[in-house]
Predict the 3D structure of the following.
Amino acid sequence: MAQELYRAMAQSVIDGEVDDARRLAQQAVEQGLDPLAAINQGFIPGVNHVGEQFSRGEMFLPDLVLAGEAMKAAIAVLEPEMARRGTQRQTLGRVVIGTVEGDIHDIGKTLVATMLAASGFQVYDLGVDVPVARFVEKAREVEADIVGLSALLTTTMARQADAIKALTEAGLRPRVKVMVGGAPVTASWAAEIGADGTSEDAIGAVAVARRLVGAQ
Amino acid sequence: MAIKSITNPRLHLDILSAEDAQRIHTATLDVIESVGVRFPSPLALDIWEAHGAKVDREAMVVKAPGHLIEEALRNAPSAYTLAARDPAQDLPLDGNHVYVGTDGCGVEVLDPFTGERRRSTLQDVADIARVADYLEEVAFHWVAVSAQDCPPETRSLHELVAIWKNSTKHVQTESIYSAREARAAVEIASALAGGRAPLRERPLLSIMECTASPLGQDGGSLEAALVGAEAGLPVGFMTMASCASTGPATMAGTLVVGNAEVISALALVQLAYPGAPVYYAAAQTAMDLRTGGYTGGGPEDFLFGAATNALADFYNVPLSMGSFATGAKEPNWQAGLENSLSTLMASVVMSDMLLGVGLLHGSRIWSYEQMLLDCEIFDIVRKMMGGIVVDDETLALETIRAVGAGPAGNYLAQRHTKKHARDLWLPRFLDRRPYSEWEEKRDGPRDWARAQAQQILKTHQPTPLDPALATELERIVAGVEASVQQK
């Protein structure tokens, strides 16, 4: 019975059916299934399947994003149940992410956030136009492993450097790693401002984040 | 130096029927009225509210009825002239010209002498402007690369002054994102024009702002555009809505989203300053399905390049259209392919302004080689747009009779041939040499383009600004810099 439900959960992620994923998660709670088992044996195999298909060029970014959304919907249902049972999901790490102050460009940052969440990170998305102090405050509050700073404008890129400086002054570095991204960001810029990593796209960003937390 | 433009076109393309354009327009008005467009600027929201649009102050979303948009847009002039320091280089945007600008705004430069890739500086802005000043295919400037060695708050102003010190051509800035910078830019342009009234008469500067897809604007950009419009500078808004990421996966849907952004912004400008010169601007694309990245080329881009002018024509305003801007990493097969097709498609429908020559990797890396090769692409397209003239002279019947039938005759020794030989197009950079010569030298278009760029950089002296005027422009920038530092 549970096996059938797990298969349906995986399929809901593969198909990117957000409503199905939510409904199946609710069903698991109602049937008293272990929410961790639902995640690890139900939804995660779906995410892995989509990831494999993507790397073979048989699925594309929209498939990945919708799979991530389905996963997110399921976890939102299962998390309160986990809390009630006093269990916790194993995550790869906690990531605070946002677009820097003065910059309202959202999509690249959101894509990275979605991919990180789908890959097993706990992601706190602060949105756009985020002041430096807010990054520091949130990183401290959630004991972040990684802070991700996005900037699309050459004039706002300097805020990435400001944020790294502020994290250092707050005594959070080097424990908190910093990733920077955005169209004008180059590897040499990232190195110059002392960031720990950068990537030109969301898939690469996941690889960088995994490396920074020492995950395989 | 004269400017080469496409004019009196003989090629035509109907990419959208009148009914298609009407349906896109109707859908766009529906979106603006029912979904709305985000205008994150109190000033902009005040203007919308004063004209009866539904304004959600919290979300900063404006929902405007279709008639308000249509009435506002009717005030936009259909034709006007972009003025240049040298009046012989003025650019009439009258529907009968296609002009090319430099691309913008890159962040790295391939050094023309060392080949090294490095971060762009103010000196690069000046150098690129000087080469653009020399090239007759380049009609106007964008800020080609970002002057990253200047403070962010005044960078756009340093860039403007650097361009004007090195070129007599019109400048369209795409790197001003705030009212404060726009006011200073107006002051600089006024000093150059000889006052506010002469500037209004002869706008030496036009302003290009980006929308924030989907269905959004940037507050600072809106306020900068309003400052420009108040001074009589032509202002345009560019959508870069992208299929499957910031627009629907379908091209028609992405046209609607981008159109809603652009015409709502242009309508705002018309509500504030009725009759102000405005233009449509666009560089839509499709997301790369694998990386989510900006592609910089592909069949969707080429189709957008042609379709958008149908929309600009529908609203009877000029168009500044993204073409060139290849995603290629170096001047290569991909760059040639993408830049040729995008430029052909945007030209064949007579987009008024094309952006632009010289950048690689999706408008990130400046290459002088690419700049010159792009100019040659434009020259080919320009030649093609002249079409085939059929009249007594070109039918050449008398000459055909004189040469007669059979391989014993040829046309080389004919007067008619001598007379018309120069009608045939000649390349600067296509390799038409004997194979043996290539085999011996192993060089090609990139090498020749680089050599020409080096030559221009070493020798071209632009018409200088009057020294007192140059000092005045720098004083204005320094004044803004000082006031920013005080805060």
Observations:
- The longest helix of chain A spans residues 61-85.
- The first strand of chain A starts at residue 94 and ends at 99.
- The two ends of chain A are 33 Å apart (CA to CA).
